[in-house]
Design brief:
Elements lengths: L15 H5 L16 E6 L3 E7 L10 E4 L6 H13 L6 E5 L3 E3 L2 E4 L4
Parallel strand pairs: 1-4
Antiparallel strand pairs: 1-2, 2-3, 5-6
Length: about 110
């Protein structure tokens, strides 16, 4: 897990699908049905992540880390990839990100 005082690793790719494509059975399996969703909240002061079952219930507790400063895209992706590696396996990814996105391109990201 990355702590606020550690430098995040450099990502080998910027493709979210490539970074988060994991299919193993969750090691922290609890009650809940697949598909499991890696749920990420990108905020100006903190990044949160957990894995949810098909009904939106957490399969494992959340991970919370401070948002790196500065936070260029490569740094953000590296931190999110590290967070995901500390969680059980998942089938899909959902990311909440404040800002304006048009045609798949982030136009503004005020908190970052």
């Amino acid at each position: 897990m990355i702590h606020a005082f550690q430098k995040p690793p450099t990502p080998k790719t910027s493709c979210l699908y490539c970074l988060f494509n994991r299919t193993a059975v969750p090691k922290f399996k609890k009650k809940g049905k697949r598909p499991y969703t890696l749920s990420i909240d990108v905020g100006g002061t903190g990044l949160k992540a957990s894995v949810l079952d098909s009904r939106g219930r957490m399969v494992v507790g959340r991970i919370l880390v401070d948002t790196p400063r500065p936070c260029p895209p490569g740094v953000l992706i590296a931190v999110l990839a590290q967070m995901a590696s500390d969680l059980p396996a998942f089938d899909r990814v959902s990311v909440g990100f404040p800002g304006v996105v048009r045609d798949g391109i982030v136009i503004t990201a005020p908190p970052l």
